[in-house]
Each structure stands twice: as structure tokens, then as C-alpha cells.
Automatic annotation (TrEMBL):
GO terms for molecular function: hydrolase activity, acting on carbon-nitrogen (but not peptide) bonds; metal ion binding. Keywords: Hydrolase, Metal-binding, Zinc. It comes from Bipolaricaulis sibiricus. This is Uncharacterized protein. InterPro entries: Amidohydro-rel, Metal-dep_hydrolase_composite, Metal_Hydrolase, Metallo-dep_Hydrolase, MQNX/HUTI_composite_N, OTAase-like. Residues 33-54 form the Aminodeoxyfutalosine deaminase/Imidazolonepropionase-like composite domain. It comes from the Bacteria. Residues 70-420 form the Amidohydrolase-related domain.
Amino acid sequence: MYTLDPDHAMAELLVTARSVWTGIPGQRPFAPGAVAIEGTKVVAVGPLAEVERQLAFSRLYRRVQLDDLYLMPGLLNTHVHLTMNAGDDPVPDYLSRDDLALLLRAVGNARTMLLSGATTVRDCGSRGYGLVLLRDPAVQAQHTLPEVLVSGPPITPTGGHLHWMGGEADGVEGVRAAVRQRAKAGVDAVKIMATGGQMTPGTRPEAPAYRLAELRSVVTEAHRLGLRAVAHCLCAEGVVDAVRCGVDCVEHAVFFTRDREGRLVREYDSTAARILADAGTYVTPCLSAGYHRLDAVRGCTDLGADDRFRLEQEEKMLDCFTKLIRLGVQPVIGTDAGVTLTPFDETYLELVLMSRAGLGTEEVLLAATYHAAGALGLRGRKGEIRAGADADIIGCVADPCAGVEALADVVWVMRRGEIVVDRRKKAVDQP
């Protein structure tokens, strides 16, 4: 059995496994499989015998035998909030913390994500630009972090959703200047609140937050500066506006309206859905956001009207997602970790819910790897095990290709050629 040797963490490695799923669409797992790694990069992958022949006359590789594990690319979580605490009421806590406290929290949350199998994460909203520090190689090495992409404070109208993160901007020129400020600070993406949100009282999730010209100004300027543009969208008009302005990814893609009692209700808007599908825009549904709020009532039969309503809305959420994927909308994985009761070590839950809603197992895995890399602008470097890609690899005891629930138990993690998790020894040594 392999024992982690810190002095050789970045050496040339030949990793062998029961199975290797590469994350390349249409490619079946190699069983048994092998991955050859030099430094931070994959140099070869394939059936074990073939890779061994390939390396026969090469320099000596240190063999890492994971013959009991199923390997696949590390997960990419495209939507998290690293500075939030995932508690039952995270906003008051957030507002009470200074920037240093939030940065230290983000370090811990990012590390939690890596140790659970998410090797690349994108923060989709935080106060200030301190998280840019988490991309520093020295910081990553010291704290064992995933690759972190940053969007800074979401651009939002005065008093708009998450305005307390400091991203208020109004008017075509105002939002354009906000994009430039973020580029100056070194972000990877720009997030705009195309609608109100549920965590900010006084905003309207069921209505657009910006005029079309303002939204277009953000997207155009972001793209001019080489940045991805993502839009928080909770109503049909907001989704359509974002798509028509050319955003790279729609976050949530919900079609909220209000019922006669003034409650937010989920509906399916076939026109907006068709526009979204035809555009080919990525969608991050965040199905698992707040999932644990209903843990106490799921499966119960004797429920009050409020609990029945909330469970009905959850089913409507999954039904709307099912309809979107049937139209051909391309989902990617993002959990909204950090918001109410949405922990940082449950990226797998998003995959489970997508599967429950009818997305096939391979497509769910691709949403967490290959397609997520595309949404982040990292295709070719992340989300695949292929020659030239970063050696971001995870291992499970069960086969994820047979059921994504296997990802609830990631026992081995490699991040850019460095083994950062190996929980097999403890399991094997137990009597």
C-alpha cells in the first residue's frame, strides 16, 4: 500500500487504479487504468498495460498503487461564497466580521472543499478583493488550497441584492467603471445581479434589477478585458436579458413569480427556457443551495401548510431543471456553498440532485468536470485527465460512473501533482 512521502510529493509518478475515467466526453473508463504525472501535469493516461509500455524506456517513475480506487478528474465547483459561514442565518454573522476574519474563514472553507474533492472553485461574491491572495502559490502551498477563482463584490444596483458586499453601481457608465475596478483588482470573472435575491430584503427576485443597457455594458466590458461574465437570475425576464447580453453563465436560472398571497413561487417559463437553450449559455442551477433547510420535514406526512408549500417548491425546482435539460441546456456544478445551511464539503450533493432530476450519470459527471472547466474558461487545463492537463485527480472507493453518490466518499485527492489526501490507510488498518 502507498504511503505519502512529503519529500517526493511533486516527483514523477505512475498512478495505477482499478479504473480511470478521464472526463473526456464519450471516452469509457480505463480499467485497470494508469496516469503518468511529471511535476504538475499529466503526461500520459490510458489502460495500465499501454501506459507501462509507453514509459518502458523513460526515466523511472515512482509507482502509486491505488488498485482499490476509481479515479476521475477533480471536481470543479463554479459557484461558492467562501467568506460566508453556511449557518442558519449567515448574513448577520457576515456583517459582524472584519475583512481579515473573512479572509481567514475563506482559507478554511477553501481547504475544506479541496479535502472533499473540489480541486477548483470559483467564489461568486465576497466583500472586497482579499480572496485574490488565495491564488498566490505560496499561500496555496502553505494552506493546502484548491485553485481559487475570484469575482469580487457582485455588481448590484444601489440597495440591490448583496449590496452589503460593497458592489453597488448604477447606470451604463457606473457599471462599466465597476467592471474596470474589478479587472484592476485582478479578478477572474465579473458577477452581476440581474435580479433581486432572497437573502436581501427589499429587493425583488421576480423582477430585473438592471436595465438592458446596463447589463450589456457589464458583459461587453468584461469580455473586452478578458473576463468571464456571470449573472444571478431569478426571473424569466432576467434570464432572457442576461442571455441576450451574452453572459457566459446564468446562475440559478429560476423563473420566480408571486402568487396571490405574495409568496415567491417557482414556475416554468417555456419561452425563456427555449431562448436559454438556443443560446447555448451555461447554467449553474445551484439545486443544493439551502437543501438542508428541509431536512426535518422531508419524508413526513403530517405537515403544516408552510412546510407542504416549501416541499412543493423544491419539487418544482427539480421539475424545472428536468425540463431545461430536456431542451438541451448545459448545466455546470455550483452549490452556492456558504449561504444558509449549504456546507463546503458537499459538492457531491449537487450531482446527486441533478441525477435525481433525470440527468444521466455521465452527463452529471461532465457537468462537474469537462463542462465546468468550459464555463470557467479552463478547458484543456482542468476538468480532464489528459496529457497536458493539470494533475487534479480524485479517488473513490465506489465507482462514480455507476452512481454519483460515490462522490460522497472521496478518499484520495491530488492537486496539481501533489497528493493532499490519502484516507485509505486508516480504513485499511482498522481491524
